[in-house]
Amino acid sequence: MARASRHFDSFLEMLSAERGLAQNSLLAYRTDLADFSGFLAGRNENPETIGTDALRLYMQGLSDEGMTAATAARRLSALRQFFKFLVQENIRKDDPAALLDAPKRARPLPKLLSEDDVDRLLTEARHLRDDPAESARLTALLEVLYATGLRVSELVGLRWPPFGDDARFLVIRGKGNKERLVPLSEPARQAIKDYASWRSDFIEGKTSPWLFPSRGESGHLTRQRFGQLLKDLAVVAGIDPAKVSPHVLRHAFASHLLARGADLRAVQKMLGHADISTTQIYTHVLEARKQALVRQHHPLSKA
């Protein structure tokens, strides 16, 4: 299977060099392709000649093993990208993955925190009296996340200093190495300024290029550590920690904006979604608002 391995490596190199995929995304592709490579070896197949029927057997096997539809859909997406690459490189003339159907899956609504829940988290973060440096950092993290809806990797990876020529905006380099401009609220700007005087407490050595430095290997606060800090804060705030994560706060940002009348397209741009269909998962908030308006203002609703 040496040739198959070479094709996989070339594909991953292309994703990194030409599309600028993040390390987490590359790792996911590598994991998916490693599993598919095992399937090929078991059948003595190779990427250059395998047909659609064999790929269907592979996808069926994932289902039989109990893989969720969402994970199987991600695996299929990796295969489709891989075989498109083989066609573009003239390694194959046909694409055996083109006719495969995606696994059917129900799209769950995101977990939500109320505006009151977010206020409670912020209140507790501001009053960690036993550790003023941690209090300032956690407040800044929460204020920025709730004000911008950043992905957690984008948040912990913010550079120092965070502002460009205009402190009202952050320039974010997100998925696919694409830049977007995200407005920053006054409370978030103030939280960053308050935290700046404590930032040196988290620096190993004299300087750091990160807004939220850490003494760990990455040099900045990790996604996992921030997630744990949030769950600890939720316990203090009297909120079920299972309901709280950085991603849930990103959901709260989007849902609360829409509930207060924000335009779906504007929210899409701020979240960094390439396709508005991804943002439309939040339209349940719009529907709830419409129903409330009808109940409150339509003359027949009184009956």
Features:
303 residues; mainly alpha; DNA polymerase, domain 1; hpI Integrase, Chain A; 2 domains; two-stranded antiparallel ribbon; 13 helices; 2 strands; globular; chromosome partition; DNA-binding; DNA_brk_join_enz
Measure the end-to-end span. Answer: 72 Å
Output the CATH homologous superfamily of the largest domain. Answer: Intergrase catalytic core
H/E topology pattern: HHHHHHHEEHHHHHH
Amount of beta strand: under 5%
Strand order of the largest sheet: 1-2
Mean pLDDT: 85
Per DSSP E runs of 2 or more residues, the count of β-strands stands at: 2
Q: CATH architecture of the largest domain, please?
A: Orthogonal Bundle
CATH fold-level name of the largest domain? hpI Integrase, Chain A
Q: In CATH, what is the class of the largest domain?
A: Mainly Alpha
- The assigned structural class equals mainly alpha
Tell me the count of domains: 2
**Biggest pleated sheet:** 2 strands, antiparallel
Radius of gyration: 23 Å
What's the tally of helices? 13
* Unreliable stretches covering 5 or more consecutive residues: none
Instruction: Write down the overall geometry.
Output: globular
Helix content: 55-70%
Short synopsis of the structure:
The protein has 303 residues and is mainly α.
Secondary structure blueprint with pairings:
Layout: H1 2-18, H2 23-43, H3 52-64, H4 69-88, H5 115-126, H6 132-148, H7 152-156, E1 169-173, E2 179-183, H8 186-196, H9 223-237, H10 246-259, H11 264-271, H12 276-279, H13 283-297
Antiparallel strand pairs: 1-2
